[in-house]
C-alpha cells in the first residue's frame, strides 16, 4: 500500500543566502556564542519526509522562529507544518530535535514545538516532542531512526 502525501502540491519558497564566513569566525581567541542564524543554518537543509525539498524551501522552519539563550543554554525552535493536518509533524519535529542534539554541545536544552495555531493537533505533537521518554522510545525504533537519518542525511 502506497501512502499518499498529505500535501501533494506544497508551495515552494526560494532558499535564502548562506552565511558569509569572516576571518573572525576562524579566530579561536574570540568567544563565539551560538545565535539564531547558526541554529537555522544547522537545520535549514533537513529534508521533508514527504517531498524532495528542504524544511527551508517549504518554510517549515524560519530563522525568526528560533530563540537562542546562551546564558541559560537553551534553544527553542518553532516550526510550521505546510498544512494544518500534516501527519508528519511529529516526525519533522523529531528530525529537528535529533539533528540539534547531535550538533550542539550537551549543555543545551533543546525545545522543538509546532508554532501556535498552525496544526490541528499542535498540543499533542508538542507534548510528544517535549516528553523525553517518548522521544527516547521513538529513537529505539529502527524504522523511525532510519527515516530521521534520511531526513537529516544531507545536513551532516
Explain what this protein looks like in three dimensions.
The chain is of the alpha+beta class. Helices cover 32% and strands 10% of the residues. The chain has five helices and three strands. The protein has helices at 36-43, 89-103, 122-130, 132-138, 142-152; strands spanning 66-69, 74-79, 109-114. Helix 2 (89-103) links the parallel strand 2 (74-79) and strand 3. Helix 2 (89-103) runs parallel beside helix 3 (122-130). The chain is globular.
Essential attributes:
5 helices; alpha+beta; globular; 156 residues; 3-stranded mixed beta sheet
Main-sheet strand order equals 1-2-3
Helix content: 25-40%
> What general outline do the C-alpha atoms trace?
globular
Residues in β-strands, percent: 5-15%
Looking at the chains present, what oligomeric state does this protein adopt?
A: single chain
The structure class reads: alpha+beta
Radius of gyration: 16 Å
Largest sheet composition: 3 strands, mixed
For the termini, the CA-CA separation is: 31 Å
Mean model confidence by pLDDT: 88
- Order of SSEs: HEEHEHHH
Total number of beta strands: 3
Unreliable stretches, pLDDT < 50, 5 or more residues?
none
So how many helices? 5
Topology:
Blueprint: H1 36-43, E1 66-69, E2 74-79, H2 89-103, E3 109-114, H3 122-130, H4 132-138, H5 142-152
Parallel strand pairs: 2-3
Antiparallel strand pairs: 1-2
Helix pairs in contact: 2-3, 2-5
Amino acid at each position: 500500500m502506497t501512502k499518499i502525501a498529505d500535501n501533494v502540491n506544497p508551495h515552494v519558497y526560494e532558499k535564502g543566502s548562506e552565511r558569509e564566513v569572516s576571518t573572525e569566525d576562524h579566530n579561536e581567541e574570540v568567544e563565539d556564542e551560538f545565535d539564531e542564524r547558526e541554529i537555522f543554518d544547522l537545520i535549514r537543509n533537513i529534508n521533508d519526509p514527504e517531498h524532495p525539498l528542504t524544511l527551508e524551501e517549504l518554510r517549515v522552519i524560519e530563522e525568526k522562529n528560533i530563540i537562542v539563550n546562551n546564558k541559560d543554554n537553551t534553544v527553542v525552535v518553532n516550526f510550521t507544518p505546510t498544512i494544518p493536518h500534516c501527519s508528519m509533524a511529529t516526525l519533522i519535529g523529531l528530525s529537528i530535535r535529533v539533528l540539534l542534539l547531535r550538533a550542539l554541545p550537551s549543555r543545551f536544552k533543546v525545545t522543538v514545538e509546532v508554532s501556535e495555531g498552525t496544526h490541528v493537533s499542535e498540543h499533542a505533537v508538542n507534548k510528544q516532542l517535549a516528553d523525553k521518554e517518548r522521544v527516547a522510545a521513538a529513537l529505539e525504533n529502527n524504522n523511525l531512526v532510519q527515516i530521521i537519518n534520511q531526513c537529516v542525511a544531507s545536513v551532516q
